């Protein structure tokens, strides 16, 4: 441990066709009588992405996430048994490329979704940023919302590096991977409120986390405060996730936040468990270890 389907959105969009590789879309948000506009650069692949097909596919296939989870658990613990009496594999170069790829993906995702969320916050306020469904179908964000939920399947591959390199596998690691996969697929199909915050926060934290993993795998010296910062950001993410879930429930009662009670319950339980587990990890890794080291010096 010491080492380490629902009401429609209030945001309207107008697309302008273009033969160039990118275009500018104007997002129009109606707030009472005032109308705000802001040009956002939208790349062609983002503009042409059909989120309706993606959502329909997820509605038909989201339960396969349980199958992926079951196969994942079997392979992980079966793999540990298989490696028990075998030499560990190095895989350092492969791990660098793997972590670097996920870092780049997460950084781009954080920037693109972050720009969209900042726009909603600056024009419509915090409540609208929580309750608005436009994150699932708006320019720029619609592609990255789908990319986010689909990425949770290949991210399961993180664990196999731990297994094949015979590193210690903690409960938090594999539990987190499975539950995020299932919940993100489960929520995307219904386009529930709060998704913009959940996904943007996760993209941002993963941008830091996978960059750290890539640097460590490459043999670079990374100061310990960086690891503390990443774990702290994960704890903050879980706390914010709980807060957003509570606000969705509160505003759903007023008819302003499109969601379902069962989704809110699962989200709250998931984020609460993460908060407790990451807080425990923080204590064991950075507080308790520091205390033990200080005691040994005395």
Automatic annotation (TrEMBL):
Location in the cell: Membrane
Transmembrane segments: 66-83, 95-121, 171-188, 194-215, 227-252, 264-283
Designated name of the protein: Elongation of very long chain fatty acids protein
Transport is among the record's keywords: no
GO molecular function: fatty acid elongase activity
Keyword annotations: Fatty acid biosynthesis, Fatty acid metabolism, Glycoprotein, Lipid biosynthesis, Lipid metabolism, Membrane, Transferase, Transmembrane, Transmembrane helix
Substrates-to-products reaction catalysed: tetradecanoyl-CoA + malonyl-CoA + H(+) = 3-oxohexadecanoyl-CoA + CO2 + CoA; dodecanoyl-CoA + malonyl-CoA + H(+) = 3-oxotetradecanoyl-CoA + CO2 + CoA; hexadecanoyl-CoA + malonyl-CoA + H(+) = 3-oxooctadecanoyl-CoA + CO2 + CoA; a very-long-chain acyl-CoA + malonyl-CoA + H(+) = a very-long-chain 3-oxoacyl-CoA + CO2 + CoA
The EC number(s) this enzyme carries: 2.3.1.199
Biological source species: Danionella cerebrum
Listed PROSITE patterns: ELO (PS01188)
Family under the similarity heading: Belongs to the ELO family.
Pfam families, A to Z: ELO (PF01151)
InterPro entries: ELO_CS, ELO_fam, ELOVL6
A biological process term (GO) from this entry: fatty acid elongation, monounsaturated fatty acid
Membrane topology of the entry: Multi-pass membrane protein
Key word Transmembrane present: yes
Tree of life domain: Eukaryota
GO cellular component assignments: endoplasmic reticulum membrane
């Amino acid at each position: 441990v010491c080492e380490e389907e629902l009401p429609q959105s209030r945001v309207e969009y107008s697309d302008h066709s273009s033969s160039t590789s990118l275009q500018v879309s104007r997002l129009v948000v109606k707030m009472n009588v005032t109308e705000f506009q802001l040009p956002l650069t939208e790349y062609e692949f983002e503009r042409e992405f059909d989120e309706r097909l993606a959502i329909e596919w997820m509605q038909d296939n989201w339960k396969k996430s349980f199958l992926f989870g079951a196969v994942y658990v079997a392979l992980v613990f079966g793999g540990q048994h298989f490696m028990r009496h075998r030499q560990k594999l190095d895989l350092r170069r492969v791990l660098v490329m793997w972590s670097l790829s996920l870092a780049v993906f997460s950084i781009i995702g954080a920037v693109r979704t972050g720009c969209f969320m900042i726009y909603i916050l600056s024009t419509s306020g915090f409540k609208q940023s929580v309750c608005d469904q436009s994150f699932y179908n708006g320019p720029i964000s619609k592609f990255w919302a789908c990319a986010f939920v689909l990425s949770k399947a290949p991210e399961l591959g993180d664990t196999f590096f731990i297994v094949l390199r015979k590193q210690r596998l903690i409960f938090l690691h594999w539990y987190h991977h499975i539950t995020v996969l299932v919940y993100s697929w489960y929520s995307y199909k219904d386009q529930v409120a709060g998704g913009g915050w959940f996904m943007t926060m996760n993209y941002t934290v993963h941008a830091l986390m996978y960059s750290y993993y890539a640097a460590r795998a490459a043999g670079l010296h990374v100061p310990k405060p960086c690891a503390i910062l990443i774990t702290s950001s994960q704890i903050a993410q879980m706390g914010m996730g709980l807060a957003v879930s509570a606000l969705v429930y509160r505003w759903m009662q007023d008819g302003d936040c499109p969601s379902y009670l069962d989704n809110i319950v699962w989200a709250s339980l998931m984020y609460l468990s993460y908060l407790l587990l990451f807080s425990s990890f923080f204590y064991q890794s950075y507080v308790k270890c520091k205390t033990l080291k200080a005691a040994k010096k005395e």
